[in-house]
Amino acid sequence: MASTNIKGIIFDKDGTLYDYVQVWAPVINNAVKTIFISLNIEHSEKATSQLYEIIGIDNNYNIYKDGIVFNHHKVVRAFFKLLGFCFRYKVNPFSFYKMMQKLLLRPADMIKEQLDLIDFKPVQDLMDRLKKNNIKIGIVTNDTTASARVCFKMMGITDDIEFLRSKESNCRKKPNPEAIKQFCNAFNLKPEEVAVVGDATSDMDFAKNGSCGYIIGLMTGNKDREGLIKHGAHIIYDDIKCLNNDKRIFSGD
Question: Is the dihedral of CA 236, 241, 242, 246 positive or negative?
Fold first, then answer.
């Protein structure tokens, strides 16, 4: 790993700026209950456990790292997992998929409720410190622009974000490095001057594909430490607060 000074940093959103499970477990629990009732699926413990495992988080905050919510980029695999569940429990796949989309892709109100319970002062302090060190701040997320901006507002970091690429942005999605190239072009940076912070292996691949100088994995997503290292993380931290002690990022302090 080169020792070039970091002049720009790109964060993922969900699972990076906040703990994914803490926010999403109640949302998923509500979604699973609604799906079983609305589609008249036999509400057995086995069926419920299987659906939680497919999605990736259960009602006891347990994580299944191969779940759909942690692997947005593996669309085909997710489709076959859901299809298998539908055949097993005699559910209309179209109705099931449509309801899953409605409950998991746009749960804005429930997400707001969960975010409201979190103290974002450490994230605000980190962003302030990055700006004081003239480090450009970007977010690259699979979320929609509107939803991302609502989250930034609730976190109190709206004015700190200088670059945003979301679901609707005109660039290829992670792990394709196009957003990294756009970030570098926007601020006249070299990839080796950019750090990427994320919680998923796709974030690590994204950074590696973009030849970024510093790749940071966080344990606030699916907690797959081995996977993060295998996919290129230079360092692993428990959560975003730990970045405040990173001497590579804050070498100018």
Answer: positive
Q: How far apart are the first and last CA of the chain?
A: 21
Q: In which band, very low, low, confident or very high, does the pLDDT at 108 lie, cut at 50, 70 and 90? A: low
Task: Count other C-beta atoms under 10 Å from residue 144's C-beta.
Answer: 15
The answer on 93 and 173 residing in a single domain is: no
Residues 49 and 146 in one domain: no
- Secondary structure string (H, E, C) spanning the chain: CCCCCCCEEEECCECCCECHHHHHHHHHHHHHHHHHHHCCCCCCHHHHHHHHHHHCECCCCCECCCCHHHCCCCHHHHHHHHHHHHHHCCCCHHHHHHHHHHHHHCCHHHHHHHHCCCCCHHHHHHHHHHHHCCCEEEEECCCCHHHHHHHHHHHCCHHHCCEEECCCCCCCCCCCCHHHHHHHHHHCCCHHHEEEEECCHHHHHHHHHCCCCEEEEECCCCCCHHHHHHCCCCEEECCHHHHHHCCCCCCCC
Query: Could you tell me the pTM of the whole model?
Result: 0.89
The pLDDT tens digits of the residues spanning 179-213 come to: 999 999 999 999 999 999 999 999 999 999 999 99
Residue 94, exposed/middle/buried by CB under 10 A (0-12, 13-18, 19+)? exposed
Residue 228 lies in a domain: yes
Maximum CA extent, the chain: 61
The domain tally of the chain equals: 2
Task: Provide CB contacts within 8 A for 40, sequence distance 6+.
Answer: none
- The whole-number pLDDT of residue 106 equals 56
